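ENTRY TYPE: protein
WANTED: fold as tokens:
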Amino acid sequence: MKPLYLLCMVFGSVVFAQTITFKGCYNIFDNQTYTFNKTGVDSYGKNIYITTPIDGQSCSGLGTCEFKLQWNNTLTRWEFLADEGYGTFTAPSLVYYNSTGNNTAPNPPSNTVGTWVENTAFTQQGGGCGGNLTAANSTMTGDVHTTTLAISEAIKRKIRIFPNPVSDFVTISGIDNGRLIQIYNISGQLVLSEIFEEKIHVSQLSSGMYVLKIITKDSNTYEFKFVKK
């Protein structure tokens, strides 16, 4: 197995080390808990999580278990992937997918949000995972969202960003549990990510349209467009 070097996002002097723990599909993955570490963010602002490689982390004869949770933008769904056995994820197998959870969130849904569907085309070769993930046959905790995150317009109207257009600072009001700020350009590229503050310095950005994403401590997300002068 090739070594996997875990990366972390560092903003200023603060390190965000988000993890997800998973236990399930006992027929194939054995009765053990796997820890996913956040290794980065894709071009769509979705977090990527990979398990820490552990020698002897067997999968009932399928080799060493290494998993990845990532967003598939083409199919608009979160996917639970198993490595082909070399720690590279160049030809992974799809184990579960969830396309009914909140797809606007930057992190994947828990096993109680939407439906993590078992891909029986893969799992039946190892005895099956016993069906879709549920709270009865699995645990999935940590950096996952646990609600459908339906945001009413009444709630969203209480949150304001101003001024707009802006030259130097964007001010946010109406948020009391902010965790993270992300700003994307019109091409969907992440151009700024930092700890939540009510005032954000944006003078370094080029002129144009941007999307400001606010991520709260309970994993709700709010998005607002603004123009940088």
